[in-house]
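Quick question, first post here. What does this chain look like in 3D?
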Amino acid sequence: MTLAAWLWLLLCQGFFWRTDVRLPAREEPREWPSVCVVVPARDEAAVLSASLPSLLAQDYPGRAEIFLVDDGSSDGTGELAGALARRHGGLPLTVDSPGEPPAGWTGKLWAVRHGIGLARAREPEYLLLTDADIAHGPDSLRELVAAARTGGFDVVSQMARLRVESLWERLVVPAFVYFFAQLYPFRRIGRRGARTAAAAGGCVLLRTDAAERARIPDAIRHAVIDDVALARAVKGAGGHIWLGLADRVDSVRPYPRLHDLWRMVSRSAYAQLRHSPLLLAGTVLGLALVYLAPPLTLVCGLAAGRTATAVFGGLAWLMMAGTYVPMLRYYRQPLWLAPLLPFTAFLYLLMTVDSAVQHYRGRGAAWKGRTYARPDAVADEG
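> Answer (accepted):
Ran it through. Tokens below.
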């Protein structure tokens, strides 16, 4: 069963394991459209100095402006943003605050709504929604807009390259992107007519008229996993979307301890399963069959002297490790990490179960120190 599962994943799941889905072919437009960059920021002073200057320094031929929304920060995020703009110059920057969100708004979406409202006065053709921890290459905005114009995309999103320096980051972070791509194969997302829809919230270029048709962000205000919900809403409204891996869009946020990574995953894992005990049970069984069974089958087969059992387990483990190698290369990590994927998958299994436990304890969703009631309304994401 586990060998059959890996044969199917290898050949029939949109070649999710390949890492060559990068910005599609693009040509520079004759006239560059106007763009407003919306940056929701809550207590981001620790990373802002490494990220905001990259946005201010964007080499964009058209009109572009940045709106940083200081969402109730207590660490001087807004003041630091203004100081960085005065020091570095570049694109115009407006810093504003939306006040406390009303009931029913989760995560950063209230700040995003406020930023889009500020941008609307400029009548931009595109909105770039990017997180405060994302550093962009100097031509990032230019390339995103050219790709959107050339391909006729309403959403062009790039999965930022996350930081991988500590031991736990090396074990967990590449697997995070690998599992995401397994759930949402990038090749299917960009295909017209395909149901698969996803985006990476750290870097989303969105056509303004597509946002209005899909009622972004009001239609997804309950969503904990806001980037996937955004992509589904735009695609559901007839939009054409694209998602791929980034070359020069990087997250500068550190996750040095397992606790930091655990909190990142468990915050939204059960929401991904629509808070369904049945889906949770299926996920646990699936992770056990696909990721834990191969090494256990190999070891047990060898111990019991059952050659066929050991061979099937070994082949499945080999396929698993082989599909993980491209992601490790993308993250410039040593290939000896590939056989350790079952261990990492076991950590994700525990994180997912913990996410469900936190939900049923009534702790609800949390973002940047702000806790919400149990997000039963996240059914919007389904």
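The CA atoms of residues 95 and 318 lie 51 Å apart.
The radius of gyration is 21 Å.
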